[in-house]
Design goal:
Length: 310
């Protein structure tokens, strides 16, 4: 697939140790890259930014981002695709443009929680050069609109977890939102392009990698700014059912320990599953119910959707 490539003035001469890889689709990563650039002076060329527009086809956005890159001190490249490649293929493509010995996968809707975010990563690479490290994410700076309350509740309970807790099941808490991977590790284990649509490609990748390399967890979080409404989350769960089935087929022993799998198996036995699925979705969508009740209903809906895959 052909791509439009735009490099800023700092790109050519850079010799980075970390390549920050940020794909996006119908998002504007301008705020993220401007914040990262505030660390440029302290980094002394150790970090490069590589962004990839995975088929947004917004000429005005492309023009604005090129102008932003031209004003950055960090070396930066923008890759613009006309057709969507998807989460797995897109991230694999990003690594082919990277020049550093370590990749930092950082989603476009993240906002670092510390002014030393990139410096913390470069210090870790210099000291330990870990095979895989996840920095964690938070909701510290996330929007508090009522329409995102259920997503905040879900994410806060199951994803925004301290490093010590994540380390107990290291492969489970790996997301491409804030993930460092050494180049030689990724050369051996890329993302599976068989995953399409939303979800699970990063978790499945971690399952493979953790069998060959240590996966460490640190507390260097960034806030997940792109919270979803209940309707949007339900849609993502529906999209992700096929990917969940792929994970079950590839890693049955690991997945069988997950609560989401156990819940899906339990629901699968119920003869009224289609009816239950519709009822719990309506409960999750009902603003009159307490947030905790809606979050519980949405977790049940996810399990009910995944039941068809187990």
């Amino acid at each position: 697939m052909s791509a439009d490539i735009h490099d800023n003035a700092a790109w050519t001469a850079a010799a980075p140790t970390i390549s920050v890889l940020t794909p996006f689709l119908r998002d504007d990563p301008d705020a993220l890259i401007r914040q990262l650039d505030t660390e440029a002076a302290a980094l002394s060329g150790q970090v490069e930014l590589i962004l990839m527009d995975d088929g947004t086809n917004d000429a005005a956005l492309t023009k604005r981002l090129k102008a932003t890159l031209d004003g950055l001190s960090l070396p930066a490249r923008l890759i613009t695709l006309t057709a969507n490649e998807g989460r797995a293929k897109g991230r694999n493509r990003l690594t082919t443009a990277a020049r550093g010995p370590a990749f930092l996968f950082l989603d476009s809707d993240m906002k670092p929680d510390t002014p030393h975010f990139l410096q913390n990563w470069t210090d870790l690479v210099a000291a330990d050069a870990p095979a895989v490290a996840f920095g964690g994410f938070s909701l510290d700076q996330a929007p508090t609109d009522a329409r995102f309350a259920v997503h905040r509740a879900l994410s806060g309970a199951s994803e925004c977890v301290p490093a010590a807790e994540r380390a107990r099941t290291p492969e489970k808490y790996v997301y491409t939102s804030n993930l460092l991977v050494r180049r030689d590790v990724f050369d051996l284990e890329t993302f599976d392009p068989g995953f399409t649509g939303w979800g699970w490609e990063d978790v499945e990748w971690a399952m493979r990698v953790s069998q060959r390399f240590p996966v460490i967890h640190i507390d260097n979080p960034a806030t997940h700014m792109g919270l979803d409404t209940v309707a949007d989350l339900a849609g993502k769960f529906e999209q992700g059912a096929g990917n969940f089935a792929r994970v079950v087929a590839l890693h049955p022993t690991i997945v069988q320990t997950y609560p989401s799998y156990k819940a899906a198996r339990a629901l699968k036995r119920l003869p009224a599953l289609p009816l239950i699925r519709g009822l719990v979705k309506q409960a999750a969508l009902a603003p009159i119910l307490p947030t905790k009740a809606r979050a519980f209903a949405l977790r049940l809906y996810r399990a009910a959707v995944y039941a068809d895959a187990v």
